[in-house]
Amino acid sequence: MFPRQPVAGFSATAKGCSYLPFSGSVLSSLAGDLEGYGQTKGSLHFDPADPLTTTLVRKLIRSRIAER
């Protein structure tokens, strides 16, 4: 049985939204797909008026699951 670990999270504030992969390597591994988005080492930032595409979210989630 796997220990319970989050796969991903989202955050919304007055300034915008963030995707949180709970991993230090997911965002860097998909750097080519993330051009145009603001980010830190641990979060991807986007405007709610221009949300992440379904395809991108699937790539992010699959990448995170693969590393677990």
Structure commentary:
This protein has 68 residues and is of the alpha+beta class. The protein has one domain: Aspartate Aminotransferase, domain 1 (Alpha-Beta Complex). It is 26% helix and 25% strand. It has two helices and four strands, in the order ββαββα. The radius of gyration is 12 Å and the shape is globular. The model has no long low-confidence stretch (mean pLDDT 93).
Which characteristics define this entry?
single chain; 68 residues; alpha+beta; Aspartate Aminotransferase, domain 1; four-stranded antiparallel sheet; 2 helices; 4 strands
For the CA atoms, what is the radius of gyration? Answer: 12 Å
How much of the sequence lies in strands comes to 25-35%
Total count of strands: 4
CATH topology: Aspartate Aminotransferase, domain 1
Number of domains in the coordinates? 1
Low-confidence stretches: none
CATH class: Alpha Beta
* Arrangement of strands in the largest sheet: 1-2-4-3
Q: Biggest sheet, open or closed, and with what strands and sense?
A: 4 strands, antiparallel
N-C termini distance: 12 Å
Structural class comes to alpha+beta
Q: What's the total helix number?
A: 2
The CATH architecture? Alpha-Beta Complex
Q: How confident is the prediction overall: mean pLDDT?
A: 93
Helix content: 25-40%
Q: Give the topology string: H per helix, E per strand.
A: EEHEEH
* Molecular shape: globular
